[in-house]
Amino acid sequence: MRTRAAVALEAGKPLEVMEVNLEGPKAGEVLVEIKATGLCHTDEFTRSGADPEGLFPAILGHEGAGVVLEVGEGVTSVAPGDHVIPLYTPECRECEYCLNPKTNLCQSIRSTQGQGLMPDGTSRFSMLDGTPILHYMGCSTFANHTVLPEIALAKIRKDAPFDKVCYIGCGVTTGIGAVINTAKVEIGSTGIVFGLGGIGLNVLQGLRLAGADQIVGVDLNDSKSQMGRHFGMTDFVNPSDVKGDLVEHLVELTGGGADYTFDATGNVGVMRTALEAAHKGWGESIIIGVAPAGAEISTRPFQLVTGRSWRGTAFGGARGRTDVPKIVDWYMDGKIEIDPMITHTMPLEDINKGFDLMHSGESIRGVVIY
Ligand code: NAD
Ligand code: AHE
Ligand code: ZN
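Above: the input record for the complex with nicotinamide-adenine-dinucleotide. Below: its predicted structure, written as C-alpha cells.
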C-alpha cells in the first residue's frame, strides 16, 4: 500500500512529508493505522544527528496510538479493529530480560530494531522509486500507517482518545514510571526534577502520585514554572537566578539534599548537578535524559562513596503490554492528567513547525493528528 509519512532523509535536515510504499505485515507482524503521534525530544535528538544510533533515511516517531488494520500469520494477541499503542520497548514475555523482574528492557528484537529493521532483517517502508526507508525505534509513528511486531503493541480500551493517549507511548509512562517503577519513591519523600518539559512534568505528577512532600522543579525557562505547579511542584528554581553554587542552593532548599533527583534534560552537566543534589547517605539520582554522541558523565567518586547512587531508566521501567493499558485506565479514571501538557496539535504537513515550537520552549507536547 501507499501511505503518507514525514521522512528524515538526512541528519540535521527538516523532515519531508511524502507518499511512501508500505509492505503488508509478515508473520508475527501487525499493520496499524496511526491516528495521532506526539513529538518527543528523542525524535529531535535523532533528527539532529546527535544520536550515535541514528540512521537515515528513516521514518521517526515513537509516541503514537492507532487502530489495527491487518495481522500477519500467527498473530493472536491483537486483531483488526483493536486500539493499540506502539512500544519502543517491546515485551515478549519470554527472553532472559522479560523473565527477570529487575528490568523492562526486553532484548528479543533490540538488535534489528537498532538497525531500523523488522525482526527478519528487512524494512517494510520504501520510497516510491524503491529505495528502502528505515524504521525507527521499532515504531515509525510519523507515518500514517506502519508495521510493528506483535510484541511491540499494547492493546488499549476503545474509548480512550488517540490524540491524548498517544503521549502514554513515551512521555507520560517515562516520567511517571521513573518515579513509581525505577525510583520506587516513598510517601513523604523529597524530589528534584531537572527539566520541566514533556518528560519532567510527568515526573512531577509521578512524585505527587507517590505522595512526595517537597517537589522541586529546576528549569532555565521561567515559563515552565506555572505548568510545574499545576503538576505538583512545590518550589521552582531557575539556575540563572541562583547566586553561587546550584548544588549548595538545592541542598539547602531540601534540608540536606533530595531523597530522589531526576534528570530530564539530557545535559551531562545537569546530570552531575542532579547526582550531587541527592542526599548524602541515601539519595538516588535517576538519569532519564538522552545525551548526544560522545558526551560522558563525571563526578567525584566520593559522591558515590558517601552513599548517593546513580541510576538510569528507559520507558520508565514499564513493561509495555502489561503496564500501558493500566496507565490508559489511570488517565480515563482521572488519576493522572494529560490534556494540559498537549499544548499544540497539527497536521502531518506542519510537523517541522512542531519541532520549532519544541526548540523555542513554547510547547510542552506537540501532537500530530492524522
Ligand atoms: P523537552 O524539550 O520537552 O524538555 C526539556 C526541558 O529541559 C525544557 O523545559 C528545557 O527548558 C529544560 N532544560 C534544558 N536545559 C536545561 C538546563 N541546563 N537546566 C535546566 N533545565 C534545562 O524534552 P522532553 O521531551 O521532556 O525530553 C527530555 C529528555 O528526556 C530528552 O533528553 C529526551 O531524549 C529524554 N527522554 C528519555 C526517555 C527514556 O526512556 N529514558 C524517554 C523520553 C525522553
Ligand atoms: N540511541 C541512543 C539512546 C536512545 C535512548 O536512550 N533511548 C531510550 C528511549 S528515549 C525515548 O524517548 C531507550 O529506551 N533506551 C534503551 C534502548 O535500548 O534503546 C544512543 O545514545 O545510542
Ligand atoms: Zn520519547
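Notes for the reader.
Residues 28 and 75 are 5 Å apart (CA to CA).
The radius of gyration is 20 Å.
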